[in-house]
Amino acid sequence: MGKYWNEEIECMDREQMKALQSERLVKQVRHVWDNVPYYREKMKEKGVTPDDIKGIEDLHKLPFLSKADLRDSYPYGLLAKPLSECVRIHSTSGTTGKRVVAFYTQNDVDMWEDCCARAITAVGGTKEDVCQVCYGYGLFTGGLGLHGGSHKAGCLTLPMSSGSTERQIQFMMDLQSTILCCTPSYAAYIGETIHKMGYTPDDLKLKAGIFGAEPWTEEMRKQIEESLGIKAYDIYGLTELSGPGVAFECECQNGMHINEDNFIAEIIDPDTGEVLPEGSKGELVFTSITKEAFPMIRYRTRDICVLSREKCGCGRTLVKMAKPMGRSDDMLIIRGVNVFPSQIETVLMKMSNASPNYQIEVGRENNTDTFVIKVELTDGMFNDTIRSIEELERKISQDMLSVLGIKAKIKLVEPNSIPRSEGKAVRVIDTRKLID
Ligand code: ADP
Ligand code: ZN
């Protein structure tokens, strides 16, 4: 097996890919017009019919679809195939409100698993590998998505799901897992637990990890790579578009290739909806051109990111997306200043002895926002004198001020006092309740 799962698609010439996308888009638009009254109404409102869509150059004529549309049409309103042809349902993890559900035909499941098999192959996975999947199994797409991809790629699959961390580690050693799939925050926790149990990366056979489902920084990547003795790769996806595997990282580790034969990506200005030129930072919008049961046309992800068509060292021609900075709705506005949790993580992880465990607390007192960053001390730091701890607080506070542009109160807390996550980490506790 080579380094590509599907070389023809992954390295396809640009013009050929555009032609493939155009052909699939035209068909998909016809499919939703014929089968989903909700889409038909939205298109009529915008004065566009399937006849206006002749190729990807016409994509911008179509209306956007938002999470609100998904909630409005819950559960069956966007279904484009009879339920009797659907074989699976998944649901979002509900990070930002009411969950949405997505439906899959057998072809949809095959396409999704194929995308995940590409991701596993890109990090060196073959049938010689043991792939330990510790994303949650169930309605959440992480577990079953990577599980299916691992099967497809021929890896020996360990369907662990999340939790029972010591048992995970025992199996990892006994069964010589080589690839680990979970959220980056859980990977950091597994690394921490391995060291606590008295093991080192040399006791493991792990070589690569596929970590996604939440934002994580380059600094976090370095820390996980060191603590587990592996290469850590990013993977991106969302339930609405099937799940993980919409985009995956290659050996170059500098951005994720989007599976463009299935998903057309655009970057828009989140305020005006205008399509931005390549290289601009904006909101990522996807059109799924092969999904049958639950097609998404110009779906606004709210993820803020940049696309690049620069040639990649791996030989793939698929467009790359940078690590999303977080969602537009993850962005905190504190005393009028925009703050992304990822900026805070970058500052913290740059410190020597950094702990990947932190929590941001935002509240309101006397009509002013309060902003506290709780940072967990590592065991080493905990034994330091009060004076050196105070100095550390001051130092973090200064660094935060220079990066964020506002002052945060830094609270250093005891080792192990911030709850660990086995899935998506809860980094922000905002008690202001200004937005629902
Ligand atoms: P929910 O919206 O409830 O969290 P999902 O589980 O479908 O539901 O999560 C999809 C979202 O997770 C994406 O829109 C994105 O914000 C985030 N996400 C997924 N993968 C990554 C990644 N590799 N980096 C950053 N964010 C990611
Ligand atoms: Zn590449």
Structure at a glance:
The protein has 436 residues and is α/β, with parallel strands linked by helices. It contains twelve helices and 19 strands.
Write the layout of secondary structure elements.
Layout: H1 7-10, H2 14-35, H3 37-45, H4 67-72, E1 86-91, E2 101-105, H5 106-122, E3 130-133, H6 141-152, E4 156-159, H7 165-174, E5 179-182, H8 184-196, E6 208-212, H9 218-228, E7 231-238, E8 243-249, E9 256-258, E10 263-268, E11 281-288, E12 299-308, E13 320-321, E14 332-334, E15 337-339, H10 341-349, E16 358-365, E17 368-376, H11 379-382, H12 386-404, E18 409-413, E19 428-430
Parallel strand pairs: 3-4, 3-5, 5-6, 6-7, 16-19, 17-18
Antiparallel strand pairs: 1-2, 7-8, 8-9, 9-13, 10-11, 11-12, 12-13, 14-15, 16-17
The protein binds adenosine-5'-diphosphate and zinc ion.
The CATH class of the largest domain is: Alpha Beta
Q: Which architecture of the largest domain does the CATH hierarchy give at level 2?
A: 3-Layer(aba) Sandwich
Which ligands occur here? adenosine-5'-diphosphate, zinc ion
Radius of gyration of CA atoms, rounded to a whole number: 22 Å
CATH topology of the largest domain: Rossmann fold
Residue runs with pLDDT of under 50 for 5 or more positions? none
* Overall average residue pLDDT: 94
